[in-house]
Design brief:
With 197 residues, the protein is α+β, with helices and mostly antiparallel strands. Helices cover 23% and strands 39% of the residues. Strands 1, 2, 3, 4, 5, 6, 7, 8, 9 and 10 form a ten-stranded antiparallel beta sheet that branches. A hairpin with a 5-residue loop joins strand 6 and strand 7 (93-95). Helix 2 crosses helix 4 and helix 3 (156-170) runs antiparallel to helix 4. The chain is globular. The relative contact order is 0.16.
């Protein structure tokens, strides 16, 4: 049995610059601005297994985050409280509890978080998703992967994905049973699911 190394980090604070540091990577910095004079606070935990990372973040206050450079990750937001508005450069995407949001990190985007917001986040390397799809579909995949930006978290693959991420974030790794459904499989099923979202 292969062992997976998991790293965990936790951050709390009140400063937009501190939050920008928490959310940024060396290759893809993020700028954070307050949208109102209200107080800002954040409480974020991140867990990484290498090609897949999970996050659990809670925010208070109106703020905007702008990605300064693209990333090679697919970003999946699973909101449990509050509202956010993503602007991937095309059509704005509202994010609310019960409806997940899938974004391609290759596009620089911004997000506005309003009042009290909590979401779970999944960050997956594009290559990992492409490899799952190649194995599942038994054919070569070229070009960009285009995902519908919404996923229903109340049923089907969306519910399985939300439960899997919640399980991974809420329970310590050493007390957690092996996942019954691999994350890539949930996402690959969503990609190939012909039903409209």
């Amino acid at each position: 049995m292969d062992r997976i190394s998991i790293t965990a980090t936790s951050f709390r604070g009140y400063d937009p610059d501190e939050l920008a540091t928490v959310l940024s990577t060396p290759a893809s910095p993020i700028k954070v601005e307050r949208l109102s004079g209200e107080a800002l606070s954040f409480d974020c935990e991140f867990f990484s297994t290498g090609t897949i990372s999970f996050g659990s973040c809670a925010y208070e206050g109106d703020l905007q985050c702008k990605r300064q450079a693209p990333t090679d990750k697919l970003l999946i937001f699973l909101p449990t409280r509050g509202t956010a508005l993503f602007d991937p450069g095309t059509k704005e995407i509202w994010s609310r509890p019960g409806q997940g949001t899938i974004l391609d990190g290759a596009r620089s985007e911004s997000v506005r978080l309003y009042s009290s917001r909590r979401h779970l986040t999944l960050f997956i390397d594009h290559r990992k998703i492409a490899n799952h799809l190649i194995n599942m579909l038994e054919r070569t995949i070229t070009g960009n992967l285009e995902f519908h930006p919404h996923i229903d978290l109340a049923a089907g693959p969306g519910l399985a994905l939300a439960q899997l991420v919640e399980n991974r974030v809420q329970r310590p790794a050493w007390k957690r049973p092996a996942a019954a459904v691999p994350v890539g499989s949930c996402l690959a099923r969503r990609c190939s699911d012909p039903s409209p979202a």
